[in-house]
Amino acid sequence: MSECSTGGGTMERVVCVASLLVLGAVWMVQAVPVLLEPFPLPKDNFDLDPFMGRWNEVAVVSTCPHYMRRKRGNPVTVALELQHGASDGNFTMTATSFRNGSCHRTSTDFRLTDATGRFYHHIARFRADVDSFVVHYKYDEYAMIRLLSIEQPSGNQTTTFKLYSRSMSVTATVLDDFKTLVRQRGLSDDAIIMNQSKGVCVPGERVTITAQHRVRASRALA
């Protein structure tokens, strides 16, 4: 059994195990080696200011089986709020989503790096360093994020791709571009999980998770 970490908030924490969840069918998610060659960064004029504000995590895929298992079991849209930190060198991401029948909120502090569109944070629980790359974006519409997590001292690596939207969905063209990005990095676009909106999430409020939500999520990419 090995552990893997993917970012906090939507860049949430997970422990990676080999088992897969069965939800009426067998979902085969194959972990692939993390590619270490240079990864494309945003164009040089990426500006953090217009990147701040409200986003929704609408799609995800990862090389970590346990993360994928958890997302398959609870494929809900994650509301994100990005705000500048106390200094120019950091920002905070607040993530709000439904989990286990309740609304939960977490916050993660990110540090800027010398590379444009690349952010860093550390998960002390797993001793993991996580780099986030804004690969493609349109400030008022969407952003495609690649996360690379490396645990110490094992060196275990996890690659995750996330698709953010300013609204609750993306156009067919943006989704096709996201699938292409995923394929180019060695993952299957069939494994992409499309998150489903369950309404406004108020921390501490309990909700009823219906089977209908789970059926829609499992068929989203069919």
Secondary structure layout plus pairing:
Elements: H1 48-51, E1 53-62, H2 65-73, E2 78-84, E3 90-99, E4 102-112, E5 118-123, E6 128-138, E7 142-151, E8 157-165, H3 172-184, E9 193-194, H4 211-218
Antiparallel strand pairs: 1-2, 1-8, 1-9, 2-3, 3-4, 4-5, 5-6, 6-7, 7-8
Summarize the structure.
The protein has 222 residues and is an alpha+beta fold. It has 4 helices and 9 strands; from the N terminus they run αβαβββββββαβα. A hairpin with a 5-residue loop joins strand 7 and strand 8.
Report what the structure shows:
The chain has helices at residues 48-51, 65-73, 172-184, 211-218; strands at residues 53-62, 78-84, 90-99, 102-112, 118-123, 128-138, 142-151, 157-165, 193-194. The chain is an alpha+beta fold.
Helix coverage percent of residues? 10-25%
- How would you sum up the major sheet? 8 strands, antiparallel, barrel
Number of helical segments? Answer: 4
Strand content: 25-35%
Mean pLDDT value: 79
Compute the number of strand runs.
Answer: 9
Terminal CA distance: 31 Å
User: From the alpha-carbon coordinates, what is the Rg to the nearest angstrom?
Assistant: 16 Å
What overall geometry do the principal axes of the alpha carbons give?
Answer: globular
Order of helices and strands: HEHEEEEEEEHEH
- The structure class reads alpha+beta
Q: pLDDT under 50 segments (min length 5)?
A: 10-37, 209-222
Provide the spatial order of strands within the biggest beta sheet: 1-2-3-4-5-6-7-8
